[in-house]
Structures are given as C-alpha cells and as structure tokens.
Structure prediction request, 55 residues.
Amino acid sequence: MKRVDVQAEPKETCGKSRKDSRLRDMLSALEGRMTNLDKFMDRMKEIFEILRDAP
Prediction:
C-alpha cells in the first residue's frame, strides 16, 4: 500500500466568488447606465437637429 505525503493547499473560493459577484453587479450597473446615457445622447441629437433646422 502506497502512502502519499502531499499536503493540499486550501483554496479561498468563498472570498473570490464574493468578489466576482460584486464585480458582476458593478458591471451590470454600469451597462445599465451606459444604456441610459446612449438613450439620452440620441434624444439630445434629435433636439439639436430640431433646433438647428428651426427658423
């Protein structure tokens, strides 16, 4: 019978997954803000064109 004397190092998965979750939440929030900003910019372009074409 073989005996293995190798010590496995414990991994810190709990902290990493918590950090990953926070990063995903931040990314999702930023994507939402970018969508809102894109809509705002499109609307502002429309308004500027209307004002530019006004007499």
About this structure: The chain has a mean pLDDT of 85. The CA atoms of residues 32 and 51 lie 29 Å apart.
